[in-house]
Amino acid sequence: APVAAVAAVDLGATSGRVMLALLHGDPGRERVELEEVARFANGPVEVPEGDGAALHWDLLHLWRGVLDGLRAAGVAAAARGLDLGAIGIDSWAVDYGLTGADGALLGNPRCYRDPRLEGVAEKVLDTLGAEAHYRVNGLQTQPFNTEFQLVAGAQDAVWPLATSVRLIPDLLASWLTGRVVAEVTNASTTGLVDATTRQWSPTVIDGLVRAYPALGDLRGRLADLVEPGDVVGHLTGRVRSLTGLGAVPVVAVGTHDTASAVVGVPAADDRFAYVSSGTWSLVGVELDAPVLTQASREANVTNELGVDGTVRYLKNVMGLWVLSETLRTWRESGRDVSLAEALAAAETAEPGRTVVDVDGPQFLAPGDMSARLAEAARASGQPVPDGVGQVVRCVLDSLAAAYARAVDQVTELSGRGSDAVTAIHVVGGGSQNALLCRLTAEATGLPVVAGPTEGAALGNAVVAARGVGLLTGTLTDLRGVVRRSSTLVTYEP
Ligand code: LFR
C-alpha cells in the first residue's frame, strides 16, 4: 500500500493534467505510482486584434482544471487513507500573466506563438549586443523569450497598470497560496536571469530598460527567485474550500516542464543525452555549469537552469507539434487521419525520401504544415511528399535527423569527450512513438531508451516529495525512484 501521496500538475501546450503520485516502498527502495485524476484540453485561442489576430491562452480554463484536478487528487488520496503531502506545478516556459496593484489579472496571457513577436528578437539583440547578452544569460534566441515578449507588450494599454509579471506556474501557485515567487528553472527562460549566478541579472534588466524605457521598473515587477524544492506556501482558506483539501504545501518544483522532464530521465549515470518529446522536442545534455562561448551562441544552444544547480544544455527542435498540427489542419479540411493511421502509413513509406529542416521559423505558427513541408522540399530540391505516409514519414525522418544533429552539437560544444553519451533517453508523450524512437536510434547510432511517458509529472512529483521530506537524496537518487517507477523500452541502432 502507498505510504504517501503528492499531486503533480503538469500543463502542456495541448493538454493539462493532474496526477496523483502515490509513494510506495521502504526508504531507498521507493517507487511512485502515477494515477491521472484529471486531464483537460489546452491550446492557443485566436482573438481578433486590430487588423490581425492575437494568440492567447485560456488561463481560466486551466485554473478551473487545476482546481477540479486537485479536488479529484484529494478524493483519490483519501480513498487510500492518505492526505496530499504536497502539490507541484509545472508548465511550458516563457509565458506570463500580469496582475495589477489590486492583485487582479490584467487580461489573458499571450501564447508564445503570437504573431506579433516576429522580428522583435533581432531588433532587441541588435540594440543590446547579442554576444554580451549570451555571455550573461546563455539563452538561445527564440522569438518568444519572455524578454522579447515584454518589449512587445510594453506597448500594450495594460502594461503601465501591471505591478507583477508572473510566469504561468508562479501565477497559479500565487493564486493557490497567496505568495508570489519566481522559480528559477522557468525564470531562466525569460532571458533576464544570469546563467552563472542563478539570479536576476541587473546587467540584462537595466540594459533592456535603458533601450526600452516603457518597461519602467521591470525588476520591481519580478518576484524574488526560489530554487526547486522550496515551499512556496500553503493552500489559502478560499482554495481549501474550493478543493476540499487541507493546508497542503505548494512546492516550487522544476516549474518549467522541461526541467521536470529532465529530472524524470531514468538514467543511472550521467552519460546520457535526453529528448524531452512532446509538443517540442528538447534535445540536450545535463551539465553542472553553463557554456557561454561564441560557438555555442552561434549554434543557438541554450543553457536553461535545472534542478539541484544543474544546467540543461539543449536545443529546441520543433517537435511533434509539426505532426499534430498536420493532423489538425487535415481534420479541419475534412480529412480525418488518426495518429495511429498516420504512423502506420509512415512505417511503410520510403525511408529518407525527403528530409527538411523542421526548425525553420515557418513551422512555428499554427497552420497548414503539409503545405510548408512541400515548400521546404521544393526549396531544397527534394521530392514533395505526397499522401499521408510520405508526409508523416518526412516529419519523422526530419525530426530524427534534427535530434542527431542536436546531440552531436551539444556534445561537441560542451567539450565532453565523444564517449560522453552512451544512450539517448526519450521521455514524454513522444516516447510512445515507436517509429520515431527507432529512427532516432538509427540517426544517432546510439541506443534509445524510451520512457517514462509522464516524465515531467514524475520529475515534478519526486521534487515536490523531497521538498517536504517524503523523499531524500540527490538528483541521481531521485532518478532511481523514477527508474523503479517506469517501464522502459530500448531501441538498438
Ligand atoms: C516545452 C517548452 C520548451 C519551451 C517551450 C515554450 O513544453 O517548455 O522547453 O522552449 O515549451 O515555452
From TrEMBL:
Keywords from the UniProt entry? ATP-binding, Disulfide bond, Kinase, Nucleotide-binding, Rhamnose metabolism, Transferase
InterPro entries cross-referenced by the UniProt entry = ATPase_NBD, FGGY_C, FGGY_N, Rhamnulokinase
> GO MF terms on file?
kinase activity
**May I ask which residue range the UniProt record assigns to the signal sequence?**
none
Domain called Carbohydrate kinase FGGY N-terminal: residue spans? 51-264
SUPFAM superfamilies, sorted: Actin-like ATPase domain
CDD domains (alphabetical): ASKHA_NBD_FGGY_RhaB-like
Protein name (database record)? Carbohydrate kinase
Organism this protein belongs to: Paraoerskovia sediminicola
For this protein's source organism, the top of the classification is:
Bacteria, Bacillati, Actinomycetota, Actinomycetes, Micrococcales
